[in-house]
Amino acid sequence: MNMAETPNKPKHYGYRVVSDFLVIGGGAAGLDLSLRLAELGSVQLITKTDVQESNSRYAQGGIAAVLDAEDRFELHIEDTHRAGAGLCHQDTVQFVVENGTRAVNRLIQLGVPFTRTPEGPCHLTREGGHSNRRVVHSADATGQAVIQTLLAKVQQHPNIEIYQNHLAIDLITSHKVGRFAPDHPNRCLGCYTLDLENDTVITQQARFTTLATGGAGKVYLYTSNPDIATGDGIAMAYRAGCRVANMEFIQFHPTCLYHPKAKSFLISEAVRGEGGILVLADGDRFMERHHPRRELAPRDIVARAIDFELKRTGNDCVFLDITAKGEHFILEHFPNIHAKCLELGIDMVREPIPVVPAAHYTCGGILTKLDGTTDIANLFALGEVSHTGLHGANRLASNSLLECLVFAEAVEQTIRKLSAEEDTSHCIPLPPWDDFDTHPCDEAVLISHNWDEIRRFMSHYVGIVRSDSRLARARRRIELLQQEINEYYWNCRISRDLLELRNIALVASLIIRSAIHRKESRGLHYNSNHSERDDTLWAKDTVLPIHI
Ligand code: FAD
Ligand code: SIN
């Protein structure tokens, strides 16, 4: 069928929009899925801000996959497990790695301009934790190349309608709207969305809804993530009744640029992969004392080593030095990082770059099976928002974009099978958003204060190094703040700041509760009161809700 001749657009009925598929989030995961689903029917794709903005867009290093003749699936699987510190799910790791090569080849066919070697094939870079060169990349701006290619196709597709500057507030489920049937499980019917330009709430209805809303780096004060990363999808799914897993495993990237004017700028792990070394202000190459693989140890170890050295020396940052590689090499491999640093007065060709660790990736998320399904029927989770079991207690570098792509195909295939069944229940009108009895919020300072407070205590008490007393303190604070925020939410007219605050507070509480539950240290979770890994009791996922 030629879709251009028979467009299958979402249908508009006053405050309601109805389509076959609703995709919430337009990063690598959401764009790839939208493109796939558009071959099956009408798609509503919603993004919180500009459609260009997502974590995916800022990805630098690349996408890990077995592409080199010298490499093997078993080695990528082994590296993923080693980084994941005993918590990766064997079936998921195998599934992702074995389907990864096809996923990358599809991107090549779609036209993503990956960097090539002079001989023709894609150039493969090296990153921490990988035993081989296996990261395909587009210089040091891989995310931008992937997003631009996918977005151009999405924007041209006649079956996709994009709603940018639309913030999904909450999922609508059959139980929430009072539709209980003995033989029907709770099922997702769509979501309420705040149109940020017109300040109105619309109802977006669909047979199948997918959350592809990314991670939650903004729960922390220092993060590599852009402002959209407030964990909205995890919060929405949890409120709707989905289980979430492994929220204690927040990955801190070891090397974010340390500069007062650089808000969340990453210095790619590929800089270390290509020979960059970490030094203290006096030139001391400290990683030698922390791990035999030095700068190329897994991320949790490098980030903790830097944290240790900063506390020991009282310094504000460490330095990443790649000057030994020379100007030609640096400009060829890292043109964007070089330009950004230069803009701020740092010439990485001639001097080391000041860096610090920052919150980077949410390893946990919505519990998702291999076919992308969640605890709620007709609701899928995809990309960083999900917990598929791939990353375990620590994600291997460049496995995230890979997961987005491999699971986009898995979700598409599941939906393809399910959508063959006749079903029109999504066409039944749902109630409009009810904001009766709410009033404009007249104390915006409370919102900004609470935002700031959460991000500060999460950084100080629930960061790279945790302890029982710090976690207990964090728990007391988050409980109080959540009470205050919920009161606000029920009484005040909603706004982007209020909705995001409510979400980061919930996600912070999930991280704290999970961290308190795990009485050991493993991967990204390090508790100084339980500093050893304990496989007899804790070689298992933390799944919420649990009673702790
Ligand atoms: P995102 O790309 O974050 O997209 C989320 C989307 O959801 C956005 O469109 C956003 O607007 C939308 N959204 C969020 N909330 C709402 C809401 N309430 N309503 C409507 N829409 C909403 N991984 C790698 O594998 N390789 C790398 O080289 C790499 N480099 C990275 C560099 C940086 C600086 C960062 C921050 C991350 C990097 N990562 C890398 C991680 C990787 O980029 C992300 O994990 C991945 O891109 C997540 O993709 P996603 O599609 O799941 O979410
Ligand atoms: C980086 O380029 O260092 C980021 C890679 C990743 O997060 O996987």
Short description:
The chain has helices spanning 28-37, 73-84, 90-110, 142-156, 232-240, 269-273, 299-313, 326-333, 335-343, 400-418, 444-461, 468-491, 496-517, 535-538, and strands at 11-13, 16-24, 43-46, 63-64, 124-125, 135-136, 160-163, 166-173, 188-195, 200-211, 244-245, 250-257, 277-279, 318-321, 353-362, 365-367, 379-381, 386-387, 543-544. The chain is an alpha/beta fold and 548 residues long.
Give a structural overview.
This protein is an alpha/beta fold and 548 residues long. Helix 1 packs parallel to helix 10, helix 5 (232-240) crosses helix 13 (496-517) and helix 11 (444-461) packs antiparallel against helix 12 (468-491). It folds into 4 domains: 3-57 and 159-249 and 362-420, FAD/NAD(P)-binding domain, CATH 3.50.50; 61-144, no CATH class; 252-361, Flavocytochrome C3, Chain A, domain 1; 444-544, Methane Monooxygenase Hydroxylase, Chain G, domain 1 (Up-down Bundle), CATH 1.20.58. Helix content is 35%, strand content 17%. The strands form 4 sheets. Strands 1, 2, 3, 7, 8, 9, 10 and 17 form an 8-stranded mixed β-sheet that branches. Strands 18-16-11-19 form a 4-stranded mixed β-sheet, with helices on one face. The chain contains 14 helices and 19 strands. Strand 9 (188-195) and strand 10 (200-211) form a beta hairpin. The chain binds flavin-adenine dinucleotide and succinic acid. Residues 24-30, 46-49, 53-56, 58-63, 142-143, 167-168, 212-214, 224-225, 228, 232, 266, 361, 383-385, 398-401, 404 line the site of flavin-adenine dinucleotide (FAD).
